[in-house]
From TrEMBL:
Keywords: ATP-binding, Nucleotide-binding, Transport. This is ABC transporter domain-containing protein. GO terms for cellular component: plasma membrane. Belongs to the ABC transporter superfamily. Residues 8-255 form the ABC transporter domain. It comes from Alsobacter soli. PROSITE patterns: ABC_TRANSPORTER_1, ABC_TRANSPORTER_2.
Length: 266
């Protein structure tokens, strides 16, 4: 997958924090128009990879190519402007704002009017505000939350808040959406609904890279995956094949004889 089919290519990516190599030479490919899972045990380096792709951290070495452009030295807002956006592991909504207002904050890249025009209430700013409200409403419909548009975010259920976050991330018309544990804390029905939403977004042309711990969701909804362990690549490809890989099983559950010993101690 070294051709134009890959929208994102990570090559020998390294991120050190002092003596800790959170990412220790990761190479990975994400195919355009796919749902790609990024999985691995706790502390494997998955969130650090998302932080590197979005420019929150710069890599110690290695490269990140998005549609052929090098992202590794770019500022987060420039990466966002190229069409890469994300959600966070923990819900990060603004308190005191309605669902619609939350999503409107994500539409800033589309507005195209200066901050001064907004402050001065110029006609162009009012028209841009109406356009971003209409777009935010459309996005709420897309994630099945239009009926909650005027509710304060803090009054919504956890699953609903996650949907609002996804709608907000869609506000900048991304090409690549990075979801960091989008189903954490959800019940099976809510998680399944997120899986279906992710498929709808993919079918509408988006590429999705999703950090996920729920293996049944990964096998049901991811087209491909990258498995990390200790900052490195453990397996890449078809999710079922990756999860069945003995090295991946060992990373998650320990060696078979360790499991047998633990069982014997019980
Ligand atoms: N800012 C930081 N400073 C120092 N160490 C960090 C920092 N961020 C991450 N690490 C370390 O890097 C390693 C990878 O962390 P990371 O959060 O990327 O893993 P993860 O796979 O996302 O884990 P989880 O599934 O538990 O969220 C861990 O050992 C973590 O403690």
């Amino acid at each position: 997958m070294h051709d134009g089919a890959s929208i994102l290519v990570l090559d020998d990516l390294v991120k050190r924090f002092g003596g800790v190599a959170a990412v220790g030479g990761l190479t990975a490919h994400v195919r355009r128009g796919s749902v790609h899972g990024l999985i691995g045990p706790n502390g494997a380096g998955k969130t650090t990879v998302i932080n590197l792709i979005t420019g929150l951290f710069h890599p110690t070495s290695g490269s990140i190519r998005f549609e052929g452009a090098a992202l590794e030295a770019m500022a987060p807002q420039d990466i966002a402007a190229r069409g890469v956006t994300r959600t966070y592991q923990n819900v990060r909504l603004f308190s005191g704002m309605t669902a619609l207002e939350q999503v409107m904050t994500g539409c800033w890249l589309r507005r195209g009017v200066s901050l001064w025009a907004s402050f001065l209430g110029l006609p162009a700013a009012s028209a841009a505000w109406r356009a971003s409200r209409d777009h935010a409403m459309h996005l709420l419909e897309r994630v099945g939350m239009a009926h909650r548009a005027d509710e304060l975010a803090e009054t919504l259920s956890y699953g609903e808040q996650r949907r609002i976050e996804i709608a907000r991330a869609l506000g900048s018309d991304p090409k690549l959406l990075l979801l960091d544990e989008p189903t954490a804390g959800m019940n099976a029905a809510e998680a399944d609904a997120v899986g279906r939403l992710v498929h709808e977004l993919r079918d509408a042309g988006l590429t999705i890279l999703m950090v996920e711990h729920n293996m049944s969701l990964v096998t049901a909804f991811c087209d491909s995956c990258t498995v990390m362990n200790f900052g490195r690549l453990l397996a890449e490809g078809d999710p079922r094949a990756c999860i069945a890989d003995p090295a991946v099983q060992e990373a998650y559950f320990g060696r078979k004889h360790d499991a047998d010993r633990i069982q014997a101690l019980r």
